Amino acid sequence: MSGYLAWIEWRRLMRTPLAWTMLGLGLCLLSWQFLGTLEIFNGMQPASRSLGLSHHLGLQLFGLAAVLILIITPILTTRSFSDAFRNGSYALLSSAPLSNITILLGKFVGILLFQLLFVLMPLILSLSLFSGTQLDVGLLLAATLGLLLLSASFTAIGLYFSVQNENPGIAAAGSYGLLLLISLLDQNTEGGSFIHWLAWPSHYLDLQLGLVHISDLAYFLLVILFFLGLALHQLDKRRIQG
Amino acid sequence: MPNLLTTTNLSRSYQGTQVVVPIDLQLMRGDILGLLGPNGAGKSTIMRMLSGDLAPSHGKIEICGYDLIAQSKHAKQQIGYLPERPPLHRDQSVDEFLSDCARLRDLTRAETRQARLLTKTRCGLEQSGRRLIRKLSKGYQQRVGLAQAIIHNPRIIILDEPTDGLDPAQIRQVRELIRELSNERGVILSSHILPEIQATCNRVVILQQGKTVYAGDITPPEQACYRLGLEQNPDEALITALPAVAATERLHTDYYRITLQVGSRPNELVQQILNQGWGVCELTPDTTSLEQLFLQATTGPSQ
After folding, report:
1. Rounded to an integer, what distance in angstroms lies between the CA atom of residue A111 and that of residue A116?
2. Using an 8 Å Cβ cutoff, are A7 and A109 in contact?
3. Looking at the whole model, is its pTM more than 0.95?
4. Which of A35, B15, B48, B301 is such that its CA lies 20 to 30 A from the CA of B257?
């Protein structure tokens, strides 16, 4: 049933101008970055190229994609619960024979399906060079996996704030606040400390460079499970507290 | 016949204040139960609890033999719910929206297509299938809300102020639909409008500040009430003095509410008035029984 709900959510989203604007702008920005990266790489003396083209793409293109995902996610997650609470359409789900966990997972996967389009963009752009040069496909796939995990983590965080607030503005502000905080936590903190570990950029960087560490994967999975768990708890509480 | 819906000691409090005092409701097949009460009496809270949107603080809700909390999946299968604000996805077309609603309630693809057709006919939406919900007028949106509540053929239909915002013709259609639906099902509807309940329901629960102040049938008045318009303007005491009249109340100039003596008939009243030479210009039955009940219940000593 979660699967069907996810499909409904995705289809509803794709009916809005918002989704297409996001996709269009995203594609423009990513293409611009892609061409820019190519041009810089082309202009380098072969001797001074310490990293291959795939590394450059991984850092530049997938870096920008992560920032874009950070910007769009709260807008998407806010729609799914806050808006539904506010305009009353949530009653449709709460009175249907669906458990809270089914509803939450349905919404989560629905958003992820949309973000998958974003996640695949850098990969497709990079693969367009396939006929002209040798690419490190493993690295590109690792970076794509990283981007997918990042999207899922941001979505989980956004959903938590969305479930907590009936006011879409506050829900979005909360998500942006926390997402920016965990983006900056690795600045000015010690390398091995727990707080440093909480920040996502270092974990994502490994994947951008094609290094798949279990510890990084675990970090993302923990974030996803933790915030989905909180969101579920909040949904249950809502049914009890009203 | 087993009850479709039974609540035992159902109550609800928000942060220490009790908004619904323990209430026992029963709903049987063919019943149209009205929840009546002023705004803020707890009608919507009860409806939300019955629909599973809100968990009760205490008490139990049983739907077709299933506990709403413990066996919520089975229980909710039997419920159709239209909240105060119709829960619509405004960016979808009517067809798409209704299909989604049906599929979320476990109907198969083929069943969905059939159910959608039937429901659209029932709710007068045959021509609106391809239109976007946000482009529909308020009355039509309300119909889509109603369609959403009945598409999966539930045995209990919970309607929170279903005729709110509709024009008189639409209100009549909705009433007819509710009556038709209640043949093989049970319907609970809430309203703060007396004639609404009077026109549709066979049983009523009157609520006041979360308390049930009356529960039972809508009884016909023992004494008939009439609204009387006269050409002249006699004193109320003079009218009350007529043998057929038990009580008179002046409504506004030239209009009176007359309660007849038990056993008296309206033609006796007219005869006596004509004998006095006052001249009748209007005589209509005044169905205020529920209003009296309501006023007694909500302002009487039980408060």
Report:
1. 9
2. no
3. no
4. B301
Q: How many other C-beta atoms are found inside a 10 Å radius of the C-beta of residue A1?
A: 17
Mean pLDDT computed over B25-32: 88
* Nearest residue, CB atoms, B81 vs list A8, A95, A99: A95
User: For every residue of chain A, which 3-state class applies, written as one string?
Assistant: CHHHHHHHHHHHHHCCHHHHHHHHHHHHHHHHHHHHHHHHHHHCCHHHCCCCHHHHHHHHHHHHHHHHHHHHHHHHHHHHHHHHHHHCCHHHHHCCCCCHHHHHHHHHHHHHHHHHHHHHHHHHHHHCCCCCCCCCHHHHHHHHHHHHHHHHHHHHHHHHHHHHCCCHHHHHHHHHHHHHHHHHCCCCCCCCCHHHHHCHHHHHHHHHCCCCCHHHHHHHHHHHHHHHHHHHHHHHHHHHHC
The pLDDT tens digits along chain A (242 residues) read 788 899 999 999 998 899 999 999 999 999 999 999 999 988 888 777 778 888 989 999 999 999 999 999 999 999 899 999 998 899 999 889 999 999 999 999 999 999 999 999 999 999 998 888 888 899 999 999 999 999 999 999 999 999 998 999 999 999 999 999 999 988 887 878 888 889 999 999 999 999 999 999 999 999 999 999 999 999 999 888 76
Question: CB distance B76–A16 less than 8 Å?
Answer: no
Range of A130's domain?
A: 2-43+51-241
Number of domain units in chain A: 1
Q: Which of A16, A90, A93 sits opposite B91 (nearest CB)?
A: A16
Determine the pLDDT at residue B303.
35
- Tokens 């409701």 sit at which residue? B25
Distance CA B153, CA B77 (A): 9
Q: Using a CB-CB distance cutoff of 8 angstroms, which residues of chain B are in contact with residue A239?
A: 53-55
Amino acid symbol at B208: Q
CATH value of B225-287 in 3.40.1350, 2.60.40, 3.30.70, 3.30.450: 3.30.70
Residue B142 CA to residue B129 CA, distance in Å, equals 14
CB proximity A209 to B under 8 Å = no
Write down the CATH number for the domain with range B5-217: 3.40.50.300
